[in-house]
Amino acid sequence: MIREGVKFISDAIIAEKDHLTALDAKIGDGDHGLNMARGVNSALEALDEIDEKNLNVQKVFKTIGQAFAMNVGGASGPLYGTAFMEIGKNLNENTTLDIETIEKCLNVAVLAIQKRGRSQKGDKTMLDSLIPIDESLKKSAAEKISLADALDSAMTAAREGVEFTKTIAAKKGRASYLGERSIGTEDPGAVSSLIIFRAFCQFL
Ligand code: ADP
Ligand code: MG
């Protein structure tokens, strides 16, 4: 089940490789799709090496995190790498898949990225879709709505977050070298985070 989930999300990223690369070509160096595809392919290879009996949810996230951190150059590799590793530390075999748990995972990922990237909401980065997802899930958990409705609302928040990145200038990463000229293009990392979360929701 967990292997299938990782494969499903990886396929979604690989399908959007050219789109991500094209966005990055506009405001960065045109490698974000390549970087993300390299990350998921190395993660899948590393997971293939692990015996079924040794595979658990922590190990899966740790393996994915290490694959990104070790094999992906660029800003996104280490950032997604630490995010996945922190999510892994936050899970165990008794974890159930509910709104609170998913929110906690998003929260530790956001904190890890903020710390490592010294970045905030509004800097035009992956955080501009991840933070709205987290905030939306937190609100849904308090309102005790269904998981399906919570994921729907979180997806809407993520899409709005990506739209918002179009309207602002980048303050972090390569796109920040363009300053005001980065306005008008969606942030590639915000889009890749949206793709990952969307695929996760579809898989569930
Ligand atoms: P690089 O910019 O090194 O070529 P990528 O193209 O793979 O790496 O990734 C670019 C994405 O990384 C950006 O679109 C942005 O979302 C994200 N990013 C860059 N710097 C930061 C940062 N300091 N904090 C959070 N995210 C960042
Ligand atoms: Mg790039």
Structure notes:
This protein has 204 residues and is mostly helical. It contains nine helices and no strands. The model has no long low-confidence stretch (mean pLDDT 96). The structure holds adenosine-5'-diphosphate (ADP) and magnesium ion (MG).
Give the secondary structure arrangement, pairings included:
Elements: H1 2-15, H2 17-27, H3 32-48, H4 57-71, H5 76-89, H6 99-117, H7 127-143, H8 147-167, H9 188-203
Bound molecules: adenosine-5'-diphosphate and magnesium ion.
The site of magnesium ion has 7 residues, from loops.
On the 0-100 scale, what is the average pLDDT?
96
Uncertain segments of ≥5 residues (pLDDT<50)? none
Q: How many beta-strand elements?
A: 0
Structural class: mainly alpha
Task: Give me the Rg, rounded.
Answer: 16 Å
**In percent, how helical is the residue content?**
over 70%
Number of contiguous helices: 9
- Distinct small-molecule ligands in the complex: adenosine-5'-diphosphate, magnesium ion
Q: Characterize the main sheet.
A: none
Task: Note the beta-strand portion.
Answer: under 5%
User: What general form does the structure show?
Assistant: globular
> How far apart, in Å, are the first and last alpha carbons?
11 Å
Summary of the model, kept short:
The chain is an all-alpha fold and 204 residues long. Helix content is 71%, strand content 0%.
